[in-house]
Amino acid sequence: MGRISFLLSIVVTATAIAQEGRIVYTKFDGLPPWHSDLYRMNGDGSERVALTRDGQSRNPRWSPDGKRIVFVQSFAMDSSQLVVMDADGKKRQVLARMSWIGSATWSPDGSSFAMVARTPSLATLSQDPIWSGLYLLPANGKGKLRLLFPSVATASWSPDGKKIAFAKEGPRGQWSVWVSLADGTGDLRLTAPEPDLGNVAWSPDGAWISAQTEGKIFVIREDGRGRKAVPMPRGWLCRSTAWTPDARHLVASCSAGPVGCGGPSSTGQILPPCELRLFRLPLDGKSAAVRLGDPQAREADVSLRE
User: Fold this and answer.
1) Positive or negative, the Cα torsion across 105, 136, 171, 159?
2) Rounded to the nearest 5 degrees, what angle is found at the Cα of 53, between the Cα atoms of 49 and 57?
3) Burial level of 35, CB count in 10 A (0-12/13-18/19+)?
4) Is-contact 72 132, C-beta < 8 A?
5) Are strands 188-189 and 175-181 parallel, antiparallel or unpaired?
6) Which residues of 242-257 are buried (b: 16+ CB within 10 A; e: fewer)?
7) pLDDT value at position 18?
8) Fewer beta carbons within 10 angstroms: which end of the chain, N or C?
9) For the chain, what is the HEC assignment?
10) For the purposes of burial, counting CB atoms within 10 Å of the CB of 296, is it exposed (0-12), middle (13-18) or buried (19 or more)?
11) What is the value of pTM for the model shown?
12) Using 50, 70 and 90 to split pLDDT, how confident is the model at 11?
């Protein structure tokens, strides 16, 4: 009977971990200007493992099958590369090099990346400076980049791979959530322009799109209806989010201080120090937020497959 109970406890624990998903995240150690590394842990914050030790890695994203991780290495403000590695941190492969890469997210079928980056061609689109654009890149890193939209900060695929949600600037300093077909056509603005809006993420069940504005997280339907706030942990401001596999929780990067603190800004400026933590936030607010893992952790992504 004792052996049966023991085996049942293993099954229950494994099921809970699969429902919560494995988390990969960036951890800053406070050294300028981009000193950060990648770590992995279970969805409950246990079994933390360092994946990189180069001080230059950030913005990790899981592959659809949960076996690989794509991330960005930044050597200076004018030198970035997109890298893929196995889930244990081994077998690394450089896919692309350019002056600046913000992030890249696998399409659900694993064939391409939606990548936010800066290329010289952006300078020809407008007399005003354009910091970054949304591109499609083949998953093997070969082939031509295809620009979908300029002035985009973050992007996320719909679960069926037919659409992309993204944060787009316009007018200057104001951002909105948009949705388009995966080929860049049929674009629709979901929200009015707001300051500091970004970190868009589509839920695994396709029901919601999450985003943040000025340290507060909200969710909205893909047609722009049903916007509602996600309850925040008291005393914390939260930014980037990732969904758990059951689509009932968000894993959020939160700071115990101003939104602009803790680590480098998008322009490389060192922001004032503050405590950074990952929290698992219930979408319905009926249970308490749970603090996860290491201090100074941010930019998390959750595997939808074990």
Assistant:
1) negative
2) 95
3) middle
4) no
5) antiparallel
6) bbbbebebbbbbbbeb
7) 41
8) N
9) CHHHHHHHHHHHHHHHHHHHCCEEEEEECCCCCCCEEEEEECCCCCCCEECCCCCEEEEEEECCCCCEEEEEEEEECCEEEEEEEECCCCCCEEEEEECEEEEEEECCCCCEEEEEEECHHHHHCCCCCCCCEEEEEECCCCCCCEEEEECEEEEEECCCCCEEEEEEECCCCCEEEEEEECCCCCCEECCCCECCEEEEEECCCCCCEEEEECCEEEEECCCCCCCEECCCCCCCEEEEEEECCCCCEEEEEEECCCCCCCEECCCCCEECCCCEEEEEEECCCCCCCEEECCCCEEEEEECCCC
10) middle
11) 0.88
12) very low
Q: Could you identify the residue written with the tokens 């699969």?
A: 18
pLDDT digits (tens, 9 = 90+) for 93-104: 999 999 889 999
CATH level 3 topology of 20-302: Neuraminidase (2.120.10)
- Euclidean distance between CA atoms 231 and 237, whole angstroms: 11
Q: Is residue 245 pLDDT above 90, yes or no? A: yes
Cα–Cα distances (Å) from 270 to 58, 100, 260, 267, 295, in that order, read 15, 17, 10, 9, 18
Burial bucket for residue 144 (CB in 10 Å: 0-12, 13-18, 19+): exposed
258-261 CB contacts, 8 Å cutoff, 24+ apart: 259/196, 259/214, 259/215
Sheet with strand 163-169: strands edge to edge:
152-157, 163-169, 175-181, 188-189
Nearest-angstrom CA–CA distance, 191 and 65: 32
Tell me the C-alpha distance between 292 and 130, whole Å: 36
Q: What is the pLDDT of residues 261-287, one digit of tens each?
A: 666 555 456 667 778 899 999 998 888
